[in-house]
Every structure is written in C-alpha cells, then in structure tokens.
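User: Working on a comparison across species. This one is Phosphoglucosamine mutase from bioreactor metagenome. Can you predict its structure so I can line it up against the others?
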Amino acid sequence: MIKRLFGTFGVRRTANDVLTPEFASRLAASYGSLIKGKVAIGGDTRTTTPMIKHAIIAGLMSSGCDVIDLGILPTPAVQYAVRNYYDGGIIVTASHNPPKYNGIKFVDKYGIGLGDADELAIEKMYFDGEPVRASWESIGNLFKNDKIIEEYIEEVLKRVDVEKIKKAKLKVVLDCGSGAGCFTAPIILRKLGCELITLNSQADGFFPGRDPEPIEANLKDLISAVKNLGADLGIAHDGDADRTICIDEKGNFVLGDKSFSLVEKRMLKEKNEEGLHKKANNIIVTTVATSTAIYDIADENNGEVIATAVGDLLVARKLMEENGLFGGEENGGLIFPDFVYGRDAALSAAKILEIIATENKKLSELVEELPVYYSEKMKCQCDDDKKQKIMNNIAEEVSKLGYDLDTTDGVKIFKKDGWVIIRPSGTEPIFRCFSESNSQKNATEMANWGISLIEKYKN
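Assistant: Here's the predicted structure for Phosphoglucosamine mutase from bioreactor metagenome:
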C-alpha cells in the first residue's frame, strides 16, 4: 500500500503551507490514539517549530495522552528520553532540509521511527476515520522536563574515555549550523578538554550562516577555519544534530562513509578485545547505499554486515532485532544501539575524538589507513508522482543489459568496476544517485550515467 503522508522517517512538508497547525494537530491526535500513554515532544531550532509543537501538544492531549515537553534539543536526545522513560515521542524537525520546511518524526517506545503498519494506521485514521477525542475530564496533562539535555550530555561522556581525550588536547572547530546541536555539542567538547572554536553555534531557525545540510559545498567557512587556525579537525552537524561530518587537519572533507568505517573499525576491535564481556554481537547494520569499505573492515575484524533499505529507522530496527553492535548510513549518521536507536551526532563526534586520541594519529592518517574507494553523489529534481514509473523503466532497461541488480531500495546496479544506486528520496521531490568505483573518473561517469537514466524517463 502506498503511503499518503509518510516518507523515509516521518512527515516533512513546507511549514504553514502544507504543514499547518491544523494538519499537525490532527496527525498528532491520530498518533496519540494509537499510543495512549505518555508522549515526549521536542524539536529543532526552526522558526516554525514552536507553532507546530504547540499544535501537536494540543492534538496529543485531545486524544487523552499526557505530554512531556522536552524543549529544543537534538533528535537523538528525544529518542534517548523516550527509550528510557516514555511510551512514545514526537520530534518537530526537518533535519537537513532548508528553513522553509519542517517535519514531524514519530517514534515508538524504543525511540525508533514507526514501522510501516503503524504509519499506515495513522494515515487511515487521519484521512478515513476520526482520532480518539477524550472527554473533557480525561484529556491529557502537560508536563515539562528540562533536565534531559543534561542527562543526555552526561550519558554521551560515559561512553568514551574522557581522560584520554583530555590528554590529547585537541583543537577543534565546531559548526553547529545554528541547529539543535548548539545546546549540546559545545558543552560536550569543552567537557572533553578540547580547545574549541565555534561557528554558527547560536540557535537561529533562519540558518543564516549556512544551509542545514552538512555537505562540502555548505562547509567552506569550516574548512577555511580548520586550515587557517591549525586545528586538529572540524566537526559539523545538521539541523537536528543527528549527523556528524568531519574535516581533517588539512581541510579535507571526510565523507560519511569514511567516518562510518573509522568508527566501525574501532567498535569491532573493542568487541574482539572484550570478547564475551560485551553483550552485543559483531553485527554491523547499514544500507544498500553505503561503501564496500564497510564490508572490507567487517571481514578484517570478525564482523558481519547486514544491509537494509535507506533510512536510519530501518537500520535502527534491524540493530535491535539482531542485537547488533553498530550501524549507520553514508551521510555521517552513526547509530550506537546501546545508547540510542537512531543517528547520534554527539556520540559520533566524541567517538571520533577518542579514536584520534587513542591512536595518537592525525585524522588524515587514520582515513588513509581505510580501504580506498572513490565515490560520487548527485541528485536531480523529480515530481513525486513520477518516481515509481521511472524506477520501473530503469530496472527494466538495465536488466536487459545484463547487469546484476539489487532492488532493496531503488535500483542498485553492479558493474565490474563498482556500483551505482538510483533511488527516489523519501523526503524531497528528488532522485539521488550514488556511485562507487576504483577511480574517481569511473565513479563520476557511473553517477552521470545514472542521472542520464533518470532524465531519460522523466518526460
């Protein structure tokens, strides 16, 4: 069944245009009708977040749910709170999308994004039925919990060797992108003893310093600052602080695949050293769009990789089902399942600092030790209603050419010198095309070929 509202994770729309208070309130009441319990709510720094959050609170209380307002804080902090204390949660965020967007992410009692069945049930109630409306004496109560940020910060610090990082005396430039990370990341890095320089670390929903998405084109100021100030590394977060991107000491943009590989290698080594003392097994979960390097590192360190469709909630759910050790995506979103069942920028950054301190090597040196693959990422506009037909046509054409395909998510085409994946975005009217090969030239050519296939069938 095709979903009418939900994308890869939650519902994202232009704010106060499609995503109005009325829309948000009814959708929240539909969710509350299923949860029937204590629901935590938090959000990012977008200008429309207070408006949408208040509408959601009203909808939840109307359905009989008690609501706990956590304030403005990172998405993983909300997921942490729900997993430990509440029956469900809602996060008001559009993550990396431009300022005019906002979104509503729903999570279950484990802090994981809802599964297909629950999303379809909410849509059915929203469009075809009526949410539960409690009688006047049974409407929910509203509470506040402003201590979760402090607890979240302390829990991050418990999961790394703080003293070892302090001794390394690392100089770090931090770019929070004016998002929710402003309330956590600077504090964590200072508690880790870093010499800290901040960029865009004032909360501002207009995102005046840069676009919320931490891609290389948006991080020119951070790259310049790292080089000019002689920093050991740069760290950038997206709007809701669930993704971390690094800049090495030379000013090189470190792809999310590399960060993933670096932390995966460390996690598996720690697991092998601790052996039976660690409850989780050696399973690494990622998506079909992630680098082959993830598999290479797993092979070298007694690990096993499971691939899912794209979406951090799918990775998180598989990690829970398999009692996995670690997981994530190629975009800098890393998941530590013993802490939060979702991408976590704060622990990702702390773990990378710990690796640099433990290995006593520059970030560029650590990256050079990883398996070498070359990648290209491209995207093109496409109306949502055309996406499925385009995918069907592409799959039909490339299968006739004799290529092996993986249709777990979009179409992943395997060629003798690498692969290319073509998939429609679940959050924007675009197609994404990622490729990987044994040279940059081949990777770029494959990505261009993928884009050409999309353009061929768009009209």
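For your comparison, note: Residues 256-274 form the longest helix (19 residues).

User: Helpful, thanks.
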